[in-house]
Amino acid sequence: MKDALAIHRALLEWETVHEIVRLPSALANADELPAVLGLPAARCLVTRVYACDDVRPGNRFLAGVIVRAGERPSPEAVRLAAGARAVRPAHDDVVNAVTEYAANLVCPLLLPDDMLLLIDQRIIDAIPEDDVVYTATGEPSTALGISVRTLHTICQAKPADIRPPSSDTREPHHPAA
């Protein structure tokens, strides 16, 4: 499984400014980052993984979607952005096997080359490029701090309009921002 050390080593190799933060309490999932770090949800990012049925019957692929903590993208928006016939959240065992991260703690870095990665356009538009955002590292006791511009550049995520349909899709322990 990939972890904070693997991410740290890759970022050092790429000469990328970043920090690995030791968390004061363990995460059960990446949506807990704002509460654990004491930051707004807009500064904490979660990578959700979807199983997609290609427009060609029988072909399937995975797509990662980077969103603000506590948000769930619109499945229809993910389907359209991914060019898929149908999408659904990927099963944890598939996420674990393909990404090599714990399913609820996926980092948007070091994902398989053939995995489509989308990022909510609002993240790119709303956060100044040099501002630091935090994301999971695959392990419950650490987080990655990195500028939003650097993260977007390194992971090569495709910006997409993947707004959740309403604030009702937020996790209950994260009030609407």
Radius of gyration (Å):
15 Å
| Series of secondary-structure elements, N-terminal to C-terminal | HEHEEHEHEHEEHE
Mean pLDDT: 92
What is the helical fraction, as a range of percent?
A: 25-40%
Q: Compute the number of strand runs.
A: 8
CATH class: Alpha Beta
Which CATH architecture?
Answer: Alpha-Beta Complex
Structural class: alpha/beta
Largest sheet: 8 strands, mixed
Low-confidence region ranges:
168-177
**What fold name stands as the CATH topology?**
YbaK protein
Number of domains: 1
Strand content: 25-35%
Q: For the record, give the distance between the C-alpha atoms at the N and C termini, rounded to a whole number.
A: 33 Å
Walk me through the structure.
By secondary structure, the chain is of the alpha/beta class. The protein has a single domain (4-164), classed as YbaK protein, CATH 3.90.960. It is built from 6 helices and 8 strands. Strands 1, 2, 3, 4, 5, 6, 7 and 8 form an 8-stranded mixed sheet that branches.
